[in-house]
Design a protein that fits this description.
Chains A, B, C, D: GO terms for molecular function: triose-phosphate isomerase activity. Chains A, B, C, D: It comes from Oceanobacillus jeddahense. Chains A, B, C, D: Keywords: Isomerase. Four copies of one chain form a homotetramer. By secondary structure, chain A is α/β, with parallel strands linked by helices. Chain A has one domain (10-230): TIM Barrel, CATH 3.20.20. Helices cover 44% and strands 16% of the residues of chain A. Chain A has helices at residues 21-38, 51-57, 82-88, 104-117, 128-136, 158-171, 186-194, 204-207, 212-230; strands at 10-13, 41-46, 62-65, 92-95, 120-125, 141-144, 176-179, 199-202. An eight-stranded parallel beta barrel of chain A has the order 1-2-3-4-5-6-7-8, surrounded by seven helices. In chain A, helix 1 (21-38) links the parallel strand 1 (10-13) and strand 2 (41-46). In chain A, helix 7 (186-194) packs parallel to helix 9.
Chain lengths: 231, 231, 231, 231
């Protein structure tokens, strides 16, 4: 189901390359159920090889690529184009993750082309200043995540979170702000939303949990609670 | 159908990112039929997003990734691991294409890991010297293709072809040598095999032909003729 | 002579790697004379190997590195640190040129460290949007230069020039805006200043001129004229 | 003094970017004296900004760049060309260090151009297989250094050292083999030569020694001892 626009509060399940094949599909199917059950927007990312299967089985997820290359269909080899993502039903792509740093001119170019083709963009930012610069580029979502904290077991400091959100919205009030990094429980999810986040994204907090699917359920329950409160 | 080993003469259909979705699948289905009909090994490459569909519909092709990253499953974002390719039934991967130049130490590392996991490797080489260095790394196939000729409308010179094959086999007699670049017709395919190539790979010669599927049929007929002669 | 701050109108001689050794030094010595004669700020860039000689012979130039790496002195190999540039008397560095595209997080980091160490920064921008994002990072100078026009024989369009300047100053009124690309004569220099540029930078217009030193003299005369008018 | 060919046993002082300005020059001057005193070939590397000063003051060193770019003089920005290195009297360049990994086709191209222009090349290799592939490219020196051991406090294992040397010489008996990584004393230097190394290179062992200049003296004394023995 193609979303016109992502609605806050939203949740992002980002299993990176920890999962593939059946374990990934199981997590995706459960996320799909919960998206319907809680009536919230859930972005679910996957490596490019896995995207088409998830799109086909999980119509209620905003299936999201973990990267997209700055190429048009043509003579490029081993690249993933915006066009091919849209063709298989992918709705969004993450850009500028620490594993795929992009130059500013590539970012400007991809965001523009993605808008034309109907692909939503989530751009990762490290510092507050970087997050502001990215907000200027008009992506759908800015993911504010200090690189040094990726994979850590503490959420970003309250100061980082609130100041980032405030300063990003000063530059562009329409952009959605996602917080990630260091989320380990449904309490962390709730806290980040109460600090003003539009969305929350989780990797290790789910894939390394004792019971990943149960943890994901609890976290989405927290999003649902916030959703009802904000209405 | 998992191949133990690629057999010469083999043919590589390499549509790069020119095709995706239905047009790509149509070409793949026809190649699958021809692989059975002529009883020859056909490698068919595709962007990572398309691989799973081709594997599922085309059991007689050696479905081949156009690139694979030097990562293990884990915290990497937007990367394609050897493990995830093998999991979906991909049998080979192209490495070191001009669009994804790899350092020598990365090449050594990926080829080693690919062997352990059962993924075949095709490594692109530019000059004769580069092709020899690559042959030392013990990939399954060396693709000898002068970078400056990619996409051109002339096959590599006879001298380049024969000297490359001779010099690669001096270093490693077991590696298969694929020739590409500038192939426009079934005659070019035949000529490259008569000059000693183990395999021939084609992009523009098929995707830019007036009738791509017919051209692919004629080229595979040429491979089949060579196959009978060599027996 | 260490400048506290670059003053508009300024001029940038950017011989890229066209010149080295004596021909480069000759141009630098003449630029040094003209900086004194016209009492204007002249930035003179050079490859890293040539910087120390220019600093020693040309005390009146703002000698400028063509790139600097995001490293501190230490275990890095073959990198140029801010500290080593400052140590030899270099006053500024160009960043994010199309030949050295940097990720946004690297840019943020280098600009911050450069400020602490007393090195001025000139950051290249391609599109207007990119120029605005860069202005947020608070460099000393934004060099607005559409990548596709580098080395061409036409200056950027009037629209590009005036809109870029206006939109950059909206984001950060203190940043200086340099225009480059396609400047072939002293008339082009004058026109860019009249359109509102704070500075003008030239490569091909000088190094490929029939008489490079004479052309540089005429261009600096144009800067001097503008300088007197603006007072 | 331009060397026709590096003679074994040779020594490489490689201060990376730990030193610059006066402390670097002091070390270089002492190395220059010792090169004359012991009549051995000493390669001395430095960041590109420092090379010209060392060449001018230290005529008995083989002054060596820590990297060189694959560009000809021209429109490239912030790059160091072979031509500009040769022009200032630099005699050699290190390539493919872990901080500057190069694709195989770039390596082939640079080594070829360096030969034409009279610049010697030292290429870093990680594994034995990589060292063999590099030996095929005909550089002057292969620096065999397992990446994971750079900066460590143990020399490479005897097995790594002897097997690397043997296998490299099988491929190309004319290439010189330098060993590095983990050298902490004159005893380590001696041991590596006794295991068959043609040259030994040191970074941390000198720059992090309690008394760097004295340590360098002792190490070169060890080279000198080996030199007399081998005659």
């Amino acid at each position: 189901m193609q979303k016109e626009k992502i609605k806050a509060p939203f949740f992002v399940v980002n299993p990176k390359s920890f999962l593939y094949g059946n374990p990934l599909m199981e997590l995706a199917r459960k996320a799909d159920e919960l998206a319907v059950h809680h009536a919230i927007d859930i972005l679910f990312t996957a490596p490019s090889t896995e995207l088409v299967n998830i799109v086909q089985e999980c119509p209620n997820l905003v299936v999201t690529a973990q990267h997209v290359d700055d190429v048009s269909p043509g003579a490029s080899m081993g690249k993933v184009s915006i066009e091919s993502l849209v063709d298989i039903g992918v709705q969004a792509a993450v850009l500028n993750h620490a594993d795929h740093p992009l130059s500013l001119s590539t970012l400007v170019h991809i965001v523009q082309r993605a808008k034309q083709k109907g692909l939503k963009t989530i751009i990762c930012a490290d510092s507050v200043l970087e997050a502001q610069a990215i907000a200027l580029l008009q992506p759908d979502i800015v993911l504010a995540e200090p690189t040094e904290q990726i994979g850590q077991s503490q959420i970003s400091s309250r100061d980082y979170v609130t100041s980032t959100i405030k300063k990003i919205k000063e530059i562009n009030p329409n952009v959605l702000v996602e917080q990630g990094a260091g989320i380990r429980s449904e309490k962390d999810v709730e806290e980040l939303f109460r600090l003003g986040a539009d969305g929350v994204g989780v990797t290790s907090g789910i894939v390394k949990a004792a019971a990943p699917i149960e943890m994901m359920e609890k976290m989405m329950q927290a999003v649902s609670t916030i959703n009802r409160e904000r209405k």
